[in-house]
């Protein structure tokens, strides 16, 4: 089963792409809630390249590495990757008069319900949107 989360960001596609792919920016937005953070982000953005994002609770009680390999990249349009557990993720960026529409589709896993997974991934995407739209050094 696949799950899709979506948003539209009031920014141009170059700004959105930079915020999505730059480790300094990834560390600012890559968390589902204020109780979590992303203290480390490594990215080798090319087909066959890897990424590794460290996700941790702010109190240090929990944490995990989110690791994957890029399988397809189309600059300013598409990022596809496989997570280390074998699941596939596809992200599409489409700019129009409303801003940049992001559609992120991922293979579901079996530990959590579809609703929980969708809510978690949507929360991260919403955090991304809020960060891009509110942080002056990203949008300027």
What order do the helices and strands come in, and which of them pair?
Elements: E1 2-9, H1 13-21, H2 23-29, E2 36-43, E3 50-57, E4 63-74, E5 78-83, E6 88-96, E7 99-107, H3 114-134, H4 136-139
Antiparallel strand pairs: 1-7, 2-3, 3-4, 4-5, 5-6, 6-7
Helix pairs in contact: 1-2
In words, what does this structure look like?
This protein is of the alpha+beta class. The chain has a single domain, classed as 2-Layer Sandwich (Alpha-D-Glucose-1,6-Bisphosphate, Chain A, domain 4), CATH 3.30.530. It contains 4 helices and 7 strands. The mean pLDDT is 94.
Question: How would you describe this structure in keywords?
Answer:
single chain, 140 residues, alpha+beta, Alpha-D-Glucose-1,6-Bisphosphate, Chain A, domain 4, 7-stranded antiparallel sheet
Under the CATH scheme, the architecture is 2-Layer Sandwich
CATH superfamily: START domain
How many β-strand runs?
Answer: 7
Tell me the β content. 35-45%
Instruction: Label the structural class.
Output: alpha+beta
CATH class category label: Alpha Beta
- Order of helical and strand elements: EHHEEEEEEHH
User: What number of structural domains do the residues give?
Assistant: 1
Low-pLDDT segments: none
Q: How far is the N terminus from the C terminus?
A: 39 Å
Q: Provide mean pLDDT, rounded.
A: 94
Outline: globular
**How much helix, percentage-wise, in residues?**
25-40%
Q: What is the makeup of the main sheet? A: 7 strands, antiparallel
Strand order of the largest sheet: 1-7-6-5-4-3-2
What is CATH's topology name?
A: Alpha-D-Glucose-1,6-Bisphosphate, Chain A, domain 4
What count of helical segments does DSSP give?
Answer: 4
């Amino acid at each position: 089963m696949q799950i899709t989360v979506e948003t539209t960001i009031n920014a141009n596609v170059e700004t959105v792409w930079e915020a999505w792919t730059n480790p300094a920016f990834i560390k600012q937005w890559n968390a589902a809630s204020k109780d979590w953070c992303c203290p480390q982000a490594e990215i080798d953005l090319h087909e066959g390249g890897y990424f590794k994002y460290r996700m941790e609770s702010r109190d240090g009680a929990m944490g995990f590495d989110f690791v994957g390999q890029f399988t397809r990249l189309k600059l300013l349009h598409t990022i596809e990757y496989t997570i280390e557990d074998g699941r596939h993720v596809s992200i599409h960026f489409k700019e129009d008069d409303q801003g940049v529409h992001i559609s992120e589709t991922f293979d579901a896993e079996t530990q959590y319900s579809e609703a929980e997974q969708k809510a978690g991934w949507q929360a991260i995407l919403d955090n991304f949107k809020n960060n891009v739209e509110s942080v002056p050094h990203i949008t300027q």
